[in-house]
Write a structure and sequence with these properties.
alpha/beta; 10 strands; globular; two-stranded antiparallel ribbon; single chain; 289 residues
Length: 289
């Protein structure tokens, strides 16, 4: 059996959430990843044009830029043909191209575990931001152009949410129930991973792509996430806030790896507030200008 190849993508794509701080978050995350000289690391270039990313096309912010970046990401993977893909981002839209590639490689044996307090299953009728519709795009039910760009859409049975705050679903999130997508709440995963293992077994999924939105974590446990902005009350965040601890995510990953081959792992929405605020502060000091 030939040795399986892993590629690391450093993908600082921020336009899906129209937040350029995710660009810096991805750059810093690249330094946090455990070093591995045996794995090829590829830095995917992204636009830093703020105006182009704020402009909405067909009701979607930054649409042409995002479509181009996703096509470039997919092209890199098509050329490299890795067996496994680690992606450091970036907003949640970073998973669209890698998971499309992995779906093409592993077909209906691939499961997608979406660790997120939000389901990212909106469409242009309910959101302007691609990071809120990336799952819908992967299902072929999101923005028409992004969905069309997904060459290997997944089926609802191949998808499960972990850490989802189901009680806080918004109107833009209702496709979770409409499509009958499985989910496990933070309470379901508090002490064991059985609900996810049951899904893998029931659907005979042998390979797994994991989307790890750091927002699934509670700010009490992990501070480098959007809701943990300093001097801002978490109660004013305006959306569901994660409730899981990092140690629980590690346990889930250990458990599922006993039952399926983890072939994709995306880390999204890293917001290192201290480093961001320090950089902004230093820019105001004369010697740095």
């Amino acid at each position: 059996m030939s040795e399986q190849r892993t590629v690391r993508l450093i993908l600082p794509q921020w336009q899906g959430g129209v937040n350029p701080d995710y660009l810096f978050g991805a750059e810093l995350l690249a330094q946090v990843l455990p070093p591995d000289d045996q794995v090829e690391t590829i830095h995917v270039p992204v636009s830093t044009n703020l105006a182009a990313s704020q402009t909405a096309t067909d009701g979607v912010a930054g649409k042409p830029v995002l479509l181009q970046q996703m096509a470039e990401t997919k092209s890199i993977l098509d050329v490299k043909q890795p067996d496994r893909v680690i992606t450091a981002g970036g907003d949640c839209s970073i998973s669209e191209a890698p998971f499309d590639y992995l779906s093409g490689k592993y077909g209906e044996r691939l499961g997608v575990l979406w660790l997120d307090v939000h389901p990212d299953i909106a469409d242009p009728s309910t959101s302007q931001h691609v990071h809120e519709m990336v799952v819908a795009n992967l299902l072929g039910k999101g923005d028409p152009d992004f969905s069309k760009a997904v060459a290997n859409p997944i089926l609802p049975r191949q998808l499960m949410y972990g850490g989802l705050d189901h009680a806080a679903l918004r109107p833009m999130d209702q496709a979770v129930d409409a499509l009958g997508i499985r989910y496990a709440t933070p309470e379901d995963l508090a002490s064991d991973s059985q609900s996810i293992l049951d899904w893998l077994a029931a659907e005979q999924l042998t390979h797994l792509a994991v989307h790890f939105d750091l927002d699934v974590l509670t700010p009490a446990d992990f501070r480098s996430i959007l809701p943990a902005q300093p001097h801002t009350a978490i109660s004013d965040f305006g959306a569901a806030v994660g409730q899981m601890a990092l140690r629980q995510i590690v346990r889930v990953m250990h458990d599922v790896s006993q039952q399926a081959d983890i072939v994709g792992f995306s880390i999204a929405e890293h917001m290192p507030w201290d480093a961001i605020n320090l950089r902004h502060a230093l820019r105001e000091i004369a010697i740095f200008k």
